[in-house]
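Researcher: I'm preparing a figure for a lab meeting and need a structural model of a single chain. I don't have an experimental structure, so a prediction will have to do for now. The sequence is pasted below. Please return the structure as tokens so I can convert it later.
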Amino acid sequence: MMWTTRGGAARRIAPWAGLAGAVLLMTACGSTGSSAVAATSSPPPASVSATGPASAPASPTVTATPVSSPSVTATAAPSTAAAQTGANTFLAPGQDTNGTPLHEPACGGFGCALSGDSTAFLYKMSWTTWSATEAVGTGTYKLDSCNPNCASGTVYPVPTTVTLSQPVKVCSSSGARWYWSHASFQFPDGLPKALQGQNAPQNPWTFSTVVAAAQSSCGS
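Model: Understood. Here is the structure written out token by token.
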């Protein structure tokens, strides 16, 4: 009877024990499933703790390199006068610096006037030198005797060698030019009698009109 009672008790307890075991088993399974789901849906804690919070990619460091401005060399404005050379030195026709400047002129036709009153001309010239300091040419010097007056005087062709020198700078709105201001003559055949004495041509001859033009235009 005692065994039966215990067996019955055992039988009676067994369903509760079974129920309790089932609950425990379900709880255990539920816990295992939850852990599995949690492990699947959440990032591994070890990964998080190892790497720490994700950080944004670091921006590349840009080092500003100063750009140097190109070197600028100040250049002075072109001078109104280039350096004086034979190429920019001229004979002023009739001593008129506003006229067409003459450079190594052949002086054909009636010739190249040296005076403003048309009483002295160079004619058929050949230049052996035309430099920055002087011009030397040979040809004919046409001279008016001005007797009884220059309008009706006789013109004498005289062989000559002329040396032009003492260039002066004449300034204008277009720049500056140099003009011969001095002339000296040699007459290999001498001068005709009508051109001797007080009627002899100026020799040497300073072109005063050219000098005045230089002084008034360039201030020198």
